[in-house]
Amino acid sequence: MRNQVHMPRRKLIAANWKMNKTISEAVSFVERLKSSPAPQPGCDLLIFPPFIAIPAVARLLGDTGVAVGAQDIFWENEGAFTGEISGPMIRDAGAEYALIGHSERRHVFGENDETVARKLMATFASGLRPILCVGETLEEREAGEAESTVEKQLRSALSALSRENVKRLVIAYEPVWAIGTGRTATPDDAEQMHAFIRRFVRGVFGDPIAGELIIQYGGSVKPDNAASLLEMEEIDGALVGGASLDADSFLAIAGAIPRQ
């Protein structure tokens, strides 16, 4: 039933702070966020602080409706894995989400499709909600392989998931060439890839799951380009990097969502 009508999807604006902000700096950000007007109806906010700041941020945001997530997760619950953080630890710290397969994890730390899939399953098993990141490099796009690259990443990650898993999944399309570079996919380019991702999910899991799936865009989103991206039909929010480190900038991006 490809013509099935769905309720408008909620927009999700997420701040990925990466390796930035001490605990005190994270607290200052949250205090600024709490003093600001709530986002418009139909918009949810999510903060991905460094691991050490999750408890403080989650405690301060507990009554605001703003969610907290972890920037990574390990696929085992416990054991001799020095330096890793498990799903139960993340939940106990106060997080609700986990970021899976970010391009920096793939390209800086060598994560591959297999490890991303294992982390995705661990996220669901821990009761966390994952944001799965997919995207192509500049070389892959210029070679005409953008869609095939993203399809390969999706096929590997989603192959073991149930329909109930996918109902809780968020996908973030982040063209690798646009992350931290100042370059941004045009709204039409981003819309085309988002539509491709939704078609892929529809082909595997059908409607209404595909129609309700939240697909964010990530890649040098800023206050001055957010509106043109967020007005696209298939783009359901943003995974924001550098521009999320300043509370006013982050709020401006959330405020760029077209009113329903």
Q: How is this structure best described in words?
A:
41% of the residues lie in helices and 15% in strands. The protein is α/β, with parallel strands linked by helices and 260 residues long. The chain has a single domain (14-255), classed as TIM Barrel. Strand 3 (67-70), helix 3 and strand 4 (97-100) form a beta-alpha-beta unit. It starts with 10 loop residues before the first strand and ends in a 5-residue tail after the last helix. The model has no long low-confidence stretch (mean pLDDT 94).
How is the topology of this model organized?
Elements: E1 11-16, H1 23-34, E2 43-48, H2 54-60, E3 67-70, H3 87-93, E4 97-100, H4 103-107, H5 113-125, E5 129-134, H6 138-142, H7 146-158, H8 163-167, E6 170-173, H9 187-205, H10 209-212, E7 214-217, H11 223-230, E8 237-240, H12 247-255
Parallel strand pairs: 1-2, 1-8, 2-3, 3-4, 4-5, 5-6, 6-7
Helix pairs in contact: 5-7, 7-9, 11-12
Instruction: Report how far apart the termini are.
Output: 25 Å
Q: What's the story with the biggest beta sheet?
A: 8 strands, parallel
Question: What is the name of the CATH topology?
Answer: TIM Barrel
Helix content: 40-55%
What's the CATH architecture?
A: Alpha-Beta Barrel
**Overall shape:** globular
State the order of secondary-structure elements, H for helix, E for strand.
EHEHEHEHHEHHHEHHEHEH
Keywords for this entry:
41% helix; TIM Barrel; 12 helices; alpha/beta
What is this structure, in a nutshell?
Helices cover about 40% and strands about 15% of the residues. It is an alpha/beta fold and about 260 residues long.
